[in-house]
Amino acid sequence: QLHLQESGPGLVKPSETLSLTCTVSGGSISSSSHHWAWVRQPPGKGLEWIGSIYYSGNTYYKPSLKSRVTISVDTSKNQFSLKLNSVTAADTAVYYCAREKESAATDWGQGTLVTVSS
Amino acid sequence: QSALTQPPSASGSPGQSVTISCTGTSSDVGAYKYVSWYQHHPGKAPKLMIYEVTERPSGVPDRFSGSKSGNTASLIVSGLQAEDEADYYCSSHAGSHVLFGGGTKLTVL
Q1: CB pairs under 8 A between A and B
Q2: What span, in angstroms and rounded, lies between the C-alpha atoms of B81 and B15?
């Protein structure tokens, strides 16, 4: 049974960098069949795909966030990470990590709320 | 790369059928078979209900089905049950990224 767990600070100051890690258990992040993605949901709004990474390090980002986002993978720890810089209140959201196959997110973490506030 | 267009709300009585639409463009929904649907209960993780337009993951009831015509995909929920009340999101491969719809709140009357 695959399990994904997000971790990281729940509060980030404006203009700083949001950093989250997703730890994968019950399966290998080095799977050739899957990508590993970040999705967020601002309060009261819909889901927003942020980006994804393949175990080899190939990354794919939402065009409007591309300039601020970095997704990386650590196969030795079976983890992947999200960094979002220059955050504003608009980046306040529940952030989910997920496993993707052919652009479908088949498995999700429980999500973690990140609030951007001074 | 605007979000895919979904109706904000849909409703039906128990036992009825409801269809939720998801309209994109010839660069996303119309171009690929990689359209998915998710069920999202508040406070929980989203759940994949349909992938590749029509495919159901193991464990998803066959009351849920999907289709696509041109730039519009649809989720059909037949035999509505109280537990189907949730937010539903479509998503589509869009070349180098993935787009989500704005979400549809399904109410079981």
Answers
A1: 71
A2: 7
Taking the C-alpha atoms of residue A81 and residue A59, their distance in angstroms, rounded to an integer, is 12
B98/A52 Cβ within 8 A: yes
Residue B1 structure tokens: 């790369």
SS (H, E, C) B37-57: EEEECCCCCCEEEEECCCECC
Contact B99, B90 (CB under 8 A): no
- Give Cα separations from B22 to A36, A62, A112, B30, B91 (angstroms): 24, 19, 27, 11, 8
- Is A110's Cβ below 8 Å from some Cβ in B? yes
Cα of A81 to nearest chain B Cα, Å: 18
**Angstrom distance (rounded) from CA A5 to CA A111:** 8
**Nearest-neighbour CA in chain B from A109: distance (Å):** 7
Question: Mean pLDDT in chain B?
Answer: 96
Digit-coded pLDDT (tens) for B7-40:
999 999 999 999 999 999 999 999 999 999 999 9
